[in-house]
Amino acid sequence: MKMKTNWLCIHIVLMLFASVYAVGFYGLHFKGLEEPAWIGTRILDQKWMQQPIDHFNHRDNRTWLMRYYEEDKYFNGSGPIFIMLGGEWTINPGFLQSGLMHSLAKQHGALMFYTEHRYYGNSKPTQDISSDNMQYLNVDQALADVAYFIDNRKIQMNISNSKVIVFGGSYAGNMAAWIRTKYPHLIQGAVASSAPVYAKADFYAYYEVVTASLKRHDAQCATDVQTAFDQTEKLLASKGGPKKIRELFNLCENPNVKSTNDISYLMNFLSEIFASNVQYNKIVNGKSKISILCDTMTNASIGKPIERLAHLVNKEGDCIDVSYLEFVKKMRNDSWSSNPMKQWYFQTCHEFGYYQTSNSNQSVFGTLFHLDFFVNICTDVYGDYYENHLLENGIRRTNIMYGGIIPDVRNIIFVNGDVDPWHALSILHDINEFSPAILIHGSSHCQDLQSDDNEDVPELRAARERIKNIVSIWLQ
């Protein structure tokens, strides 16, 4: 009995540790939104399903094991199937224990699954993540994985008549919309949260939205951020300026002003301090991340705006390495233990783009990180093949295959928050009466997929209720 109790405690600790894994888009320097923590004493063991490495080459009979979680405590034997789609992260059972889908499952007696995306977490189709081996990492293959998963589970569990509703946030929100479009005979509805379904290389609107979100909170905050970035750019161009930048931001070396990649990397790093906090504008004890940022950026007692910016940089302990070459060196690591950013960036290089540049005069984050910088990462990390022409063709293909911003679809709910920069590439107006768009004022990335919280803005709670009502109609 003691051994069993100890094992349970260890399992809970491990699951709580796993809850720090992120959901949704990474930056070069920040992780995505945290999933709900696993709660309760009910243990959900990870499960595995065999999948083809290549769904579209029948001469290739190689297979791999896809990881997933299953929760059947509400399932009455004839209820619907709800699937949370994993994206560019490691899954844990949190969404099967709480959140919007869990609430709906309890209401409708649904069987719940959470599927892990190939090449992320513990779903490893190949020996390593070299560029050659990642040729099977794309959304076409990932959607086929889910389609085969649905077919397999229905056959194995003898539940062929159960309706299927999929849920997804961020890139997985794209997947939810696209799998409903591509496999309508398998999926009867989809909730696509914070889904940037329009692929685009130069996503300059990202920092326009970040800027607008700062201004909405405090116009002076946005002004001081712009001043800070202007001061940083002037220092970089002045004699002795790079040394002052190193001392101010606790960098390991003086910025190499002769390398446009190094300067772009530095300025992108500073910008992502704001991007990560605005994108996941969590509210704790009545104070949002944006509010905390702006409290610092408007605090004249700290010093000039550039000094306030430096105050936001984590300067505790070791110096900060902003060398482009060191970043590329780490990204070239082909082992599974490397940062999952390598897999996600690979997808952006040939399918989506989504590069958050400074190419807009409506942004307050300077002028020094352009599209070329992000494409250079593609070629320097994955090889010369991954250049601008491949990127343009891949983006065009994605928008042709999946509809871009004008898909002809039914039974898809597109949900976005207007604080979230990614809403600029999503569906913001009703496509038809069967595919509504919900834009939540004051909400950020994927917040609708969580459970109700006392800190939620009223529009967010109302949006969740509307989603529940629509899904209930689909299940009639």
TrEMBL record:
Q: Which UniProt keywords apply?
A: Glycoprotein, Hydrolase, Protease, Signal
GO BP annotations listed: proteolysis
* Database matches in SUPFAM superfamilies: alpha/beta-Hydrolases (SSF53474)
One Pfam match, given by its short name, reads Peptidase_S28
Under the GO molecular function aspect, what terms does this record hold? dipeptidyl-peptidase activity; serine-type exopeptidase activity
Its signal peptide is: 1-22
Say yes or no: keyword Metal-binding present: no
Q: Does the keyword Protease apply?
A: yes
Q: Which family does it belong to?
A: Belongs to the peptidase S28 family.
For this entry, the protein name equals Thymus-specific serine protease-like
Gene from which this protein is expressed: LOC105362286
